[in-house]
């Protein structure tokens, strides 16, 4: 569950402690911060209960997967594939489905675990290794993950009888990076790409391999110290120059997580594409 708080709520140990001038002021600031954080933590805890109650787990795919199906066994017409970040797992990012599924009643949410155990957090997974500061190595490892995910998506399409145009690719951090590459290098456009707190892994490589122009939304926190918000501007510039319809959204006072504001913005974008 390492990524769970990173995904939805600011890490409590990163809450800035103001320089105390007077005791009443310090207490007021702390109380304000608590009232900002607590609602999102409550949503997370409620989400854990709901996910455990309504999700299923599948080993029929090539990746271990958390699946959130539509309620009341309604017909599945769309899929959203949610890719977790470095050190996370599928059930972490599946919390996004809690709000989204109410507005997307015919949608199945597919949340696979990364194909490798995370070297830094053995309890979680990774799409590619980040322990080496070597861009060539990172690119090679990410392409291996792409191949595995392409196989996985083919299995999803077959199981639910869906084409690319009915599938949204979404991801957080490293999962965002994978979504961008998958969504732009496939033979056919996907419905859309929705990325949180990510970047383009290698612009030169993507420029050479790009085949389609899947519509894209990228969201980032302006205080992100894990993946710099500068990467949002770089990605926007690259995608515009390569004829991809791109929307971006920068969230104020937001670090490396997905707040409610980002989730709502993403949902509205997805609804426009359906």
Question: Short summary of the structure?
Answer:
The protein has about 270 residues and is α/β, with parallel strands linked by helices. It has helices at about 1-10, 25-55, 90-95, 95-105, 135-160, 175-185, 205-210, 230-240, 260-274; strands at about 55-60, 65-70, 80-85, 105-110, 115, 125, 165-170, 190-195, 215-220, 245-250.
**Unreliable runs:** 1-23, 35-54
* Percentage beta strand: 15-25%
Q: Measured on Cα atoms, how large is the radius of gyration?
A: 19 Å
Strand order of the largest sheet: 1-2-4-3-7-8-9-10
- Helicity level, as a percent range? 40-55%
For CATH, the homologous superfamily is named as Alpha/Beta hydrolase fold, catalytic domain
Q: What's the domain count?
A: 1
Order of helices and strands: HHEEEHHEEEHEHEHEHEH
Structural class, from secondary structure content?
alpha/beta
Short descriptors:
9 helices; globular; Rossmann fold; two-stranded antiparallel ribbon; 10 strands; single chain
What does this structure look like?
The chain is of the alpha/beta class and 274 residues long. The protein has a single domain (2-273), classed as 3-Layer(aba) Sandwich (Rossmann fold). The chain is 44% helix and 17% strand. It has an eight-stranded mixed beta sheet, with helices on both faces. The protein has a two-stranded antiparallel sheet with strand order 5-6. It is globular and about 45 Å long. The two termini are 31 Å apart. Residues 1-23 and 35-54 have low confidence and may be disordered.
């Amino acid at each position: 569950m390492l990524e769970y708080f990173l995904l939805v709520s600011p890490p409590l140990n990163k809450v800035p402690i103001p320089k105390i001038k007077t005791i009443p002021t310090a207490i007021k600031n702390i109380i304000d911060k608590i009232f900002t954080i607590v609602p999102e933590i409550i949503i997370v805890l409620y989400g854990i209960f709901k996910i455990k109650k309504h999700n299923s787990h599948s080993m029929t795919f090539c990746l271990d997967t958390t699946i959130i199906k539509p309620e009341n066994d309604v017909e599945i017409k769309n899929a959203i594939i949610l890719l977790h970040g470095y050190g996370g797992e599928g059930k972490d990012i599946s919390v996004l489905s809690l709000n989204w599924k109410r507005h997307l009643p015919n949608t199945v949410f597919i949340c696979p675990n990364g194909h490798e155990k995370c070297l830094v957090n053995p309890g979680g997974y990774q799409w590619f290794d980040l322990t080496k500061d070597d861009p060539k190595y990172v690119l090679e490892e990410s392409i291996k993950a792409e191949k595995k995910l392409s196989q996985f998506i083919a299995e999803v399409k077959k199981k639910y009888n869906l084409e690319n145009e009915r599938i949204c690719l979404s991801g957080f951090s490293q999962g965002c990076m994978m979504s961008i590459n998958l969504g732009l290098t496939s033979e056919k456009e996907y419905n859309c790409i929705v990325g949180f707190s990510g970047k383009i892994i290698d612009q030169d490589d993507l420029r050479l391999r790009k085949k389609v122009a899947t519509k894209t939304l990228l969201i980032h926190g302006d205080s992100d110290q894990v993946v710099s918000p500068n990467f949002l501007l770089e990605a926007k510039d690259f995608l515009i120059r390569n004829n991809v319809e791109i929307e971006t959204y920068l969230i104020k006072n937001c670090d490396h997580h997905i707040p409610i504001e980002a989730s709502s913005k993403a949902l509205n974008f997805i609804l426009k594409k359906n």
